[in-house]
């Protein structure tokens, strides 16, 4: 049930038309909401009073000379429509016998025009059911009569009704605060006509007693209920709403003395008066916010109307009055009841429920649907795989336009104009790789054409130098913290050094050339701006230096190399990296090295400071614990000996205790200060560590580049690299130098990728051909 707002009961006065209307006693001002009544009688005591008393009643509307149609519109329509939104509604007529309750509620059966609220409500309900096509509705009816405190099912004569209990009817309270009548039959109706049939059937069954005032007077209370249940057609969830419309025709409220009834009828009148009196008590209790208990259970009527009066319901009361002078007492009584009812507040709220069975079914359906979907996707995936590896390739080959797009993407990616190449399909991804390889091969070919025939040294470098990537990774891993500053090259022990017969250092002229080349390079940022992130590992070890050993060669190769070395001067061979690194730090990389050393010095100093502060904190903490313990001990001792109190009655601190308190205070301050210093120093340490790491990475990266470009690559290689789309770092440069795929290999690459994919298809095709051939032969 959804949260509700408080809403007061709406009260209307309906005046039965009469030629003898007591205009001198009842005045209806034009505002249509006020009734002024005068009377010479003391209505409470039932005696004549010479004083003329007057009363003013303020209500929601006065229905004087108002048609049945307008009465329905003003009184009932909103309540009936509210039921379609899930709100319960109650409309009840109250008043003395013959004042027009039944006329208002059921109407005059003879003429269609004079039909009352119930038939009009039924008409509206079925019109709404027809209009609201997005919902399915079920409408049930029940008709209850309360006669002499006995509940009677007015539709029990109808066989089809569903009733939980065919025995005695009892009012039961439902968990949400509502009430229902156990055993009362509920009848499913599909249209207005079926519903009206039931209404008339119930009316026929109504017990009618002879009465002095009105021979057709109803001596019972009747509750005609329309039960509506609606479910969305569009949302297949388990939620649904229910509502009920109680249309109540109360028995006449006249006094016993006035009826002049005897015997059975007098008994009826007594019961009626009693139940209406209980109704009044309930209304009084509901109108008084201080009252905690409301006596609903005192009568069947009040119990059955419990949720209509004080619960989850839009409630409207029509108080019918018979405006003749002779009835002024009853009129006053009815109006008093009506104005009390106006103070009653209800809490209408939408009755939304969740169908437990349906919710399980819905989840089951969802699970089943998802399982189906998974199955479908699995099948689609397997079909896709099948197609990709067998026949699909021929269908999925990229068009010329698509190929061109991939080429363009790769070019833009390599030149830095595109950040990433999105993966679209397997063939597109294959094509991207193919294009990358093609670029590499093209560059390699260009290199070979330009330099190989003219420069045998490059051939040699290409054959003897490990891959640049391996070099960068391996060599970076070869430098460690072994020098005096805690940093430097991890120099291999002399016994582990490979024996080189060549001069370890490049000539001065060569070095100058190298330096000027690097200094001219645009990629060289100022050393202060150390923001390059490390991509290489930083931890370097001595043993890694052995990775600089030339790869093991076959004896023939060694012999060939020795011959080559004899042919070419030794100065052409690259120096050992350890020595080159020392040179680099002294010259080309001196500035970075200096900054690195400075940063390391600051780091070392801050680390020492941090250590000192840690000691201070620990010592202070120990002292704090000790003084706290001492103070506690002192106070416990003092407690056992009794408290010293000054002449003013204040507790007195002893000198020793005061000293401990002061020490504690001082220690706390020291601790706080040391902790603050520790925190800020710790931040500094991690920042310095970060700077050191950056510098170290930078030094190594610069060294590797310098080493490679100075000793391994000739100018021709560098010039080609600078002009091509592949920038240093994009691909392993040595790959470009050492990979020697021939032209056909390059050209055939794209086809091979597809050929791999089509192999299954062609294998199968060839097998079929073979089988066919063998059959022909045989
Ligand atoms: N507003 C009205 N317009 C025309 N006729 C009316 C109106 N109100 C009541 N009457 C007529 O007055 C007579 C008594 O009305 P009705 O039977 O509705 O009174 P009641 O309050 O229902 O009495 P009871 O105590 O028997 O239930 C009926 O013949 C009815 O047609």
Structure description:
It is found in: Cytoplasm, Cytoskeleton, Flagellum axoneme. This is Kinesin-like protein. It comes from Carassius auratus (Goldfish). The structure is a single chain. It contains 23 helices and 17 strands. It is of the alpha+beta class. The protein folds into three domains: 297 residues, 3-Layer(aba) Sandwich (Kinesin); 116 residues, no CATH class; 222 residues, no CATH class. Strands 2, 6, 7, 8, 9, 12, 13, 14, 15 and 17 form a ten-stranded mixed β-sheet that branches. It has a three-stranded antiparallel β-sheet with strand order 3-4-5, with helices on one face. The protein has a two-stranded antiparallel sheet with strand order 1-16. Strand 4 and strand 5 form a beta hairpin. Adenosine-5'-triphosphate binds next to helix 2.
Short description:
With 778 residues, the protein is α+β, with helices and mostly antiparallel strands. It contains 23 helices and 17 strands. A hairpin with a 4-residue loop joins β4 (34-42) and β5.
State the helix count: 23
Main β sheet profile: 10 strands, mixed
CATH topology of the largest domain, by name, is Kinesin
- Could you say how many structural domains there are in total? 3
Helix share bin: 40-55%
The first-to-last residue Cα distance is 85 Å
Shape: elongated
| Nearest-integer average pLDDT | 73
Subcellular location: Cytoplasm, Cytoskeleton, Flagellum axoneme
Protein name: Kinesin-like protein
GO molecular function: ATP binding; microtubule binding; microtubule motor activity
Region (Disordered): 492-578
């Amino acid at each position: 049930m959804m949260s509700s707002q408080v809403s007061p009961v709406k009260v209307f006065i309906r005046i039965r038309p009469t030629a003898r209307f007591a205009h001198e006693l009842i005045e209806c001002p034009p505002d249509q909401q006020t009734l002024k009544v005068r009377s010479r009688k003391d209505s409470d005591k039932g005696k004549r009073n010479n004083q003329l008393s007057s009363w003013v009643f303020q209500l929601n509307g006065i229905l004087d000379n108002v048609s049945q149609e307008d009465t329905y519109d003003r009184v009932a329509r909103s309540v009936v429509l509210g039921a379609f939104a899930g709100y319960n509604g109650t409309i009840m007529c109250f008043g003395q016998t013959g004042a027009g309750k039944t006329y208002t509620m059921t109407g005059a059966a003879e003429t269609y025009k004079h039909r009352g609220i119930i038939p009009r409500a039924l008409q509206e309900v079925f019109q709404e059911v027809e209009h609201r096509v997005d919902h399915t509705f079920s409408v049930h009816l029940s008709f209850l009569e309360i006669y002499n405190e006995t509940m009677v099912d007015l539709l029990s004569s109808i066989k089809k009704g569903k009733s939980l209990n065919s025995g005695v009817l009892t009012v039961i309270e439902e968990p949400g605060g509502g009430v229902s009548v156990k055993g009362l039959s509920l009848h499913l109706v599909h249209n207005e006509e079926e519903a009206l049939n039931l209404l008339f059937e119930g009316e026929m069954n109504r017990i009618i007693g002879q009465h002095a005032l009105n021979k057709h007077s109803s001596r019972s209370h009747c509750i005609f209920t329309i039960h509506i249940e609606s479910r969305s057609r569009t949302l297949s969830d388990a939620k649904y709403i229910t509502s009920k419309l109680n249309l109540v025709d109360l028995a006449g409220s006249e006094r016993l003395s006035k009826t002049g009834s005897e015997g059975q009828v007098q008994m009826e009148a007594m019961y009626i008066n009693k139940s209406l009196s209980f109704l009044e008590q309930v209304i009084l209790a509901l109108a008084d916010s201080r009252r905690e208990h409301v006596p609903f259970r005192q009568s069947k009527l009040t119990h059955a109307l419990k949720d209509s009066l004080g619960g989850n319901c839009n409630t409207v009361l029509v108080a019918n009055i018979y405006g003749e002078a002779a009835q002024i007492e009853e009129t006053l009584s009815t109006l008093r009841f009506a104005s009390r009812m106006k103070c009653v507040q209800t809490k209408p709220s939408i009755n939304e429920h969740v169908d437990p069975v349906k919710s399980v079914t819905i989840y089951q359906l969802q699970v089943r649907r998802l399982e189906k979907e998974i199955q479908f996707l699995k099948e689609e995936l397997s079909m896709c795989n099948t197609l990709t590896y067998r026949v699909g390739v021929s269908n999925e080959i990229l068009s010329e336009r698509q190929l061109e797009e991939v080429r363009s993407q790769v070019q833009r990616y390599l030149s830095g104009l595109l950040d990433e190449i999105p993966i679209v399909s397997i063939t597109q991804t294959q094509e991207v790789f193919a294009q990358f390889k093609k670029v590499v091969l093209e560059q390699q070919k260009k290199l070979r054409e330009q330099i190989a025939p003219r420069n045998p040294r490059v051939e040699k470098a290409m054959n003897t130098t490990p891959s640049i990537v391996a070099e960068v990774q391996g060599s970076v891993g070869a430098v460690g913290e072994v020098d005096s500053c805690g940093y430097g090259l991890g120099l291999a022990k002399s016994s582990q050094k490979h024996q080189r017969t060549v001069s370890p250092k490049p000539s001065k002229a060569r070095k100058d050339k190298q330096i000027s080349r690097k200094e001219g390079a645009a990629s060289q940022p100022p050393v202060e701006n150390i923001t390059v992130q490390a991509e290489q590992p930083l931890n370097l070890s001595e043993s890694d230096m052995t990775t600089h050993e030339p790869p093991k060669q076959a004896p023939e190769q060694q012999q060939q190399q020795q011959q080559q070395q004899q042919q070419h001067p030794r100065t052409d061979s690259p120096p050992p990296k350890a020595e080159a690194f020392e040179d680099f730090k002294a010259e080309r990389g001196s500035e970075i090295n200096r900054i690195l050393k400075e940063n390391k010095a600051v780091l070392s100093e801050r680390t020492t400071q941090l250590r000192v502060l840690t000691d201070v904190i620990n010592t202070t903490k120990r002292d704090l614990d000790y003084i706290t313990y001492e103070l506690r001990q002192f106070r416990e001792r003092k407690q056992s000996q009794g408290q010293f109190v000054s002449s003013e009655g204040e507790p007195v601190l002893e000198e020793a205790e005061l000293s401990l308190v002061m020490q504690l205070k001082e220690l706390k301050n020291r601790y706080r200060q040391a902790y603050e210093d520790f925190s800020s120093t710790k931040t500094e340490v991690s920042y310095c560590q970060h700077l050191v790491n950056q510098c170290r990475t930078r030094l190594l990266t610069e060294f590797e580049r310098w080493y490679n470009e100075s000793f391994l690559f000739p100018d021709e290689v560098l010039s080609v690299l600078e002009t091509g789309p592949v920038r240093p770092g994009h691909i392993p440069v040595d790959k470009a130098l050492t990979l020697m795929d021939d032209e056909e290999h390059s050209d055939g690459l794209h086809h091979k990728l597809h050929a791999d994919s089509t192999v299954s298809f062609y294998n199968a095709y060839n097998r079929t051909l073979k089988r066919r051939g063998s059959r022909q032969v045989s």
